[in-house]
Design goal:
Length: 224
């Protein structure tokens, strides 16, 4: 069972001068769900090497059992520091792909041609694709074999407009995940803000927020 995890390489939060990147829990929770299930995991990012960590996700109040486990797992840290370049991987070599969120993907992965091609490759071969929180941003330009958006007619979720408002970044982000999914004809659903909420439609799994990370990973495994 080979699973590809794709992380952002983008570290600037718009024009705020603040740093962003991937959200630690959204990487650590799925990573250990897959690892504990015996999966062979490959980590990739557009630039390769160490992906930028969103400093907000590293604060004391954002720590979970999984993030603490990661902090004491030197092998996992080495793996993360040496992600392969996204343009070097092929959908043919993996059984599924998982995209952790954080605000970074809104800028790079949403517009990345290699990411788009990967997603389309997984979809064309009926292999599972999962994205959590801000990572459903990666579906912005991806198309299904019918030429329509990959989320068209699919029930999906992702970071809500009200959650974005709560973190005060509505006017900083290049687009709102909820609005984009709706404009691509996705049947957008959401649970309570900050509570775990995961939707599976066919081979597409989406999670709403950081709390949804582990559940989204488990749903992806169920499809395998």
């Amino acid at each position: 069972m080979k699973i590809l995890m794709v992380l952002t390489s983008h570290d600037q939060l718009g024009d705020t001068g603040k740093k962003t990147g991937f959200w630690l829990e959204e990487f650590a929770a799925p990573y250990y769900v897959f690892k504990d299930a015996g999966a062979d995991i490959t980590l990739a990012s557009p630039k390769g090497g160490q992906p930028p960590l969103d400093p907000s996700s590293d604060g004391e109040d954002s720590q979970t059992e999984d993030t603490k486990r990661f902090k004491s797992d030197e092998a996992a840290q080495r793996e993360l520091a040496n992600t392969v370049k996204l343009d070097s991987v092929s959908a043919d070599d993996f059984d599924a792909v998982f995209y952790p969120g954080g605000h970074g993907p809104l800028w790079d992965l949403a517009e990345d041609a290699h990411s788009k091609a990967l997603i389309e490759g997984f979809a064309a071969n009926d292999r599972p694709v999962a994205a959590v929180c801000h990572a459903p941003a990666v579906f912005k330009h991806a198309k299904g074999t019918d030429g329509k958006s990959i989320v068209s007619g699919k029930t999906v979720t992702g970071f809500t407009n009200t959650e974005e408002e709560a973190v005060g970044l509505t006017n900083v982000v290049p687009f709102l995940v909820e609005d984009m999914l709706k404009s691509n004809d996705g049947n957008y659903e959401k649970g309570d803000d900050w509570a775990s909420f995961v939707v599976t439609d066919g081979k597409l799994v989406t999670g709403q927020n950081p709390a949804s990370s582990a559940e989204a990973a488990r749903k992806l495994l169920e499809l395998l």
